[in-house]
Amino acid sequence: APFNEDATAFFADPSIKTVVWDTASEVWEMLRLAHFGKLMQNPQMQYGVVNAEYKALVRMANTARKNLILIHQLSKEYKTVEDGQGKEKSIETGNYKRQGNNKVDYLVHSYVRTLYDEPVKSSKGVVVTPGKFRIEILRSRYNPDANGMVVDSCSFVDLMGLLAPHVDSEAWNQ
Q: How far is CA 105 from CA 41, 101, 113, 123, in A?
């Protein structure tokens, strides 16, 4: 497949240090579409080949010692509840869940979620507190003490310093 050929070339190129899949959710969809010809109502029992291909692509980056940044889309999370008449219905939980391969958390050394705090406005519509981005560290395999931390938006080098403090910061500047 052309995507796999491109990925192989990126990972083999010594001048490329970081590869970004924006979005990794779409990479997952592309693999499903290539194998099944459609995105919906595919038998779960046949996902093994798709999962293996996705894992192989992620591991290829690791083997090539590349930074692979996977940006995932989020979707609203729902739960099933019974209404007053005993009928089941689906309602929003107010949370969001990551779309795409559900095992990706186990393939990467760290995963984070970006957050955005909306600006606070006065009753006259004047911004009194500007909006800001933050980063929630969901898991850092190399720095478990950082798990659960929420930091103000920072540079890639600073974020990597939190996630992998054993790596010299100069490595992230290349």
A: 24, 9, 12, 42
Question: What are the pLDDT digits (tens) for 30-64?
Answer: 999 988 998 888 888 888 899 899 999 999 999 99
Are the C-beta atoms of residues 101 and 51 closer than 8 Å to each other? yes
Q: How far apart are CA 82 and CA 69, in angstroms?
A: 40
Whole-angstrom distance, CA of residue 89 vs CA of residue 77: 14
Q: Find where tokens 């591991």 sit.
A: 59
Contact 142, 166 (CB under 8 A): yes
Q: How many CB atoms lie within 10 A of CB 96?
A: 13
* pTM check: above 0.85: no
Structure tokens belonging to residue 9: 């070339």
Question: How far apart, in whole angstroms, are the C-alpha atoms of residue 49 and residue 31?
Answer: 10
What does the alpha-carbon distance between residue 170 and residue 157 come to, in Å, rounded to a whole number? 8
